[in-house]
Amino acid sequence: MNHTWYVTFEVPTDGTLSRRRHPRLTKTFETEAAARNFARNKFNAGLIVTAGTIIPHLPRASIPSVEIPAWLELGGPTGRNERGDARYGTTEQKE
User: Fold this and answer.
1) Structural domain total, the chain
2) Contact indicator for 25, 11 with CB cutoff of 8 Å
3) According to a count of CB atoms within 10 Å of the terminal CB, is the N or C end of the chain lower?
């Protein structure tokens, strides 16, 4: 398996910790679509989510938590901004 995308998400607290912690877990995926679907489920569950491509995959993409809603709305494998520029990375491999 050649995983090129990751999704990091906040682990829900169980209420037993006395101090505030924000533990996170990361899962990797072969495609952006699979990563997006997983991220959508975690985001809809109310968790803080970030995503991106795993180094050395090119082009690199990093989607911070504040941009996750826009990334999830794109639905396709590539995000484009208003000018048509790639906003997020694609899953295409460079040869």
Assistant:
1) 1
2) yes
3) C
